[in-house]
């Protein structure tokens, strides 16, 4: 019987940089020693292995298959462990007949992956990527079942209004992926209620309705608590309730006293506060430049000055977030968490906290600074920053110096005409400056966040990988190609009709059979190399996108009640685009046992609490009275929607 490939270990034999001859010899010696030790450890663990050359220079692919006897032993050991830790399980003394009751693909891959990567103390082989003993093992991955992926995507596209069976997802990808799609489906269904309410209140009620805000807050609380119950129901039904009690320790874990661990966790707080302050100052500066300065400037190139804030945001904010993420990863590793779940939870809290500042600070500044105090801020900016033509000239000079000569000449021509007319670079009339304030800024921002940004995110997830793949194909000399791993084939974990054959060391075959298998093996290895080149799947990105969207709906949709409708439409597509992304653009997720969505539930709870504050503030500041126009505190900005509806009441 042809063995199936359960795991692929990616081994790096060379560092990918130029080495001197002595360094190259020493590197080759160390690589050979570790590679030989890797094969010995896997073989001594009763696994069958074979090494193949990878696509990149110095890359080796170690294909691993778990025989049935070893798999039975792993199943039996997990039964004992579950029984001792109080998890629901069948008779631990019985032996499971895998031929009559086969494991699901996710169970098989999870058991083998856990066996290979867990520590010796937990009964594993200790081959953990990134650990001190295996610094040349880059990663461990599993291969896609393309027959299932094709059927999965087809099921999403044919069921226009329904949802795919999540048990199939769990059997193929494990508990964590199934739990995410359950959460996304559950959240999407609950958006139907608040979307219907948003449409009604948008067309038949004055803006910033107290009733809508109250209904929105009740919806948020109901959703979070209902999901808490639903999550518990799923974990009980799947038999994973309390699975954290049997979680294996991380290979990088070093036992420490409790107070040292707590101090290390607290040490990350100053780093977070520093980057949060830098980001807040940067975003506030971009906000002032975009909302006030750009409208005051009337000099050469004023048509293009509006793009400045966007360019600054795109150039600086991702860099700050990227640098902070490097520190967050280092600090989380230094915190020395014993289990992968707590490690991931700590990193999630660190990274999402700063991402939330980027997501919500801009609209908060507009709601609580721009609209209520826009005139005052405009006057301050107008007087203190750009008072007089000389200051404007000194400020604009360095900016024009970096522009192309032909553009600068065109700007100077415009500038000459304006100077001849005794005009300055900046708007000096305070009345005219106030008239440039945008009364619909909040609504425009909500549209951008809930429509434009989500369309862009969908393109980045689905369309951009095709573009990058085509660019890499052209650069490598293969011509323009958008190809992905071929559908309709499968590895040993699915039910596809066509199996690819890999010859392991303990197999014998005559020359004719071996020659017949060579072509099939080459095709299989081509598919393996394509999947190895794919990035690893990161579930943080998908959860972060949905939780951020929930924050917009619960905290800010009183500004634009159609935001839930836009989110509902996006999520209907998101269910399908996420499935497509997992099946085509990333490596197959490694199955894990879990009974919760982790820190995301606490984040949803915090956003619900924050929604109570923001909705109260928005209603207090902007709700129109019975017989008065909507005049926000401290400004003459009016709301066209409010004027239409209040006049209807009178």
TrEMBL record:
Residues 4-137 form the Anoctamin alpha-beta plait domain. Residues 631-650 are annotated as: Disordered. The keyword Transmembrane applies. Keywords: Membrane, Sugar transport, Transmembrane, Transmembrane helix, Transport. The keyword Lipid metabolism does not apply. GO terms for molecular function: chloride channel activity. It is a multi-pass membrane protein. GO terms for cellular component: cortical endoplasmic reticulum; membrane. Pfam families: Anoctamin, Anoctamin_N. This is Glucose transporter rco-3. It comes from the Eukaryota. The chain crosses the membrane at residues 179-204, 210-227, 265-298, 304-327, 347-371. Residues 169-620 form the Anoctamin transmembrane domain. It is found in: Membrane.
């Amino acid at each position: 019987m042809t063995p199936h490939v359960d795991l692929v270990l990616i081994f790096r034999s060379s560092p990918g940089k130029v080495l001197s001859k002595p360094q190259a010899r020493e590197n080759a010696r160390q690589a050979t020693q570790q590679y030989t030790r890797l094969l010995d450890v896997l073989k001594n663990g009763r696994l069958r292995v074979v090494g193949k050359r990878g696509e990149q220079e110095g890359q080796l692919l170690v294909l691993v298959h778990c025989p049935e006897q070893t798999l039975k032993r792993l199943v039996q050991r997990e039964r004992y462990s579950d029984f001792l830790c109080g998890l629901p399980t069948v008779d631990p003394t019985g032996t499971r007949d895998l031929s009559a009751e086969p494991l699901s693909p996710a169970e098989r891959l999870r058991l083998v992956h856990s066996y290979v990567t867990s520590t010796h103390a937990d009964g594993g082989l200790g081959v953990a990527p990134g650990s001190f003993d295996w610094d040349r093992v880059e990663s461990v991955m599993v291969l896609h079942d393309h027959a299932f992926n094709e059927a999965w995507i087809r099921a999403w596209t044919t069921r226009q209004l329904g949802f795919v069976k999540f048990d199939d997802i769990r059997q193929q990808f494990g508990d964590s992926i199934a739990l995410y799609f359950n959460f996304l489906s559950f959240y999407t269904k609950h958006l139907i209620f608040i979307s219907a309410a948003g449409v009604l209140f948008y067309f038949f009620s004055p803006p910033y309705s107290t009733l809508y805000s109250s209904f929105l807050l009740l919806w948020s609380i109901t959703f979070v608590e209902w999901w808490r119950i639903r999550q518990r129901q799923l974990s009980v039904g799947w038999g994973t309730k309390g699975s954290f009690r049997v979680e294996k320790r991380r290979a990088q874990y070093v036992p420490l006293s409790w107070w040292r661990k707590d101090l290390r966790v607290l040490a990350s707080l100053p780093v977070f506060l520093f980057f949060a302050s830098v980001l807040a100052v940067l975003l506030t500066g971009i906000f002032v430049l975009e909302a006030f300065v750009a409208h005051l400037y009337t000099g050469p190139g004023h048509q293009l000055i509006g793009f400045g804030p966007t360019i600054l945001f795109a150039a600086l904010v991702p860099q700050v977030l990227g640098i902070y993420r490097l520190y967050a990863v280092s600090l989380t590793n230094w915190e020395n968490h014993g289990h992968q779940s707590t490690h991931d939870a700590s990193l999630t809290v660190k990274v999402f906290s700063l991402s939330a500042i980027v997501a919500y600070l801009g609209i908060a500044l507009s709601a609580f600074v721009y609209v209520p105090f826009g005139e005052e801020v405009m006057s301050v900016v107008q007087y203190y920053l750009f008072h007089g033509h000389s200051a404007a000239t000194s400020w604009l000079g360095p900016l024009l110096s970096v522009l192309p000569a032909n553009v600068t000449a065109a700007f100077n021509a415009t500038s000459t005409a304006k100077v001849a007319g005794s005009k300055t670079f900046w708007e000096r009339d305070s009345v005219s400056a106030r008239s440039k304030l945008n009364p619909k800024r909040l609504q425009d921002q909500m549209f951008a966040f809930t429509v434009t940004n989500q369309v862009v995110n969908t393109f980045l997830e689905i369309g951009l990988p095709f573009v990058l793949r085509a660019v890499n194909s052209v650069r490598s000399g293969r011509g323009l190609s958008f190809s992905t791993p071929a559908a309709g084939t499968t590895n040993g974990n699915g039910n596809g009709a066509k199996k690819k054959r890999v010859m392991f060391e303990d197999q014998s075959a005559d020359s004719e059979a071996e020659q017949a298998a060579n072509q099939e093996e080459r095709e299989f290895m081509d598919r393996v190399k394509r999947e190895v080149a794919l990035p690893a799947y990161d579930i943080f990105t998908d959860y972060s996108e949905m939780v951020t969207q929930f924050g917009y709906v619960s905290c800010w949709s009183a500004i634009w009640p159609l935001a839930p409708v836009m989110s509902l439409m996006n999520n209907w597509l998101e269910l399908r685009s996420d499935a497509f992304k997992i099946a085509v653009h990333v490596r197959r997720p490694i199955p894990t046992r879990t009974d919760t969505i982790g820190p995301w539930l606490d984040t949803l709870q915090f956003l619900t609490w924050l929604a109570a504050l923001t909705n109260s503030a928005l209603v207090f500041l902007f709700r129109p009275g019975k017989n008065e126009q909507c005049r926000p505190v401290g400004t003459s900005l009016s709301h066209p929607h409010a004027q239409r509806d209040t006049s209807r009441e009178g």
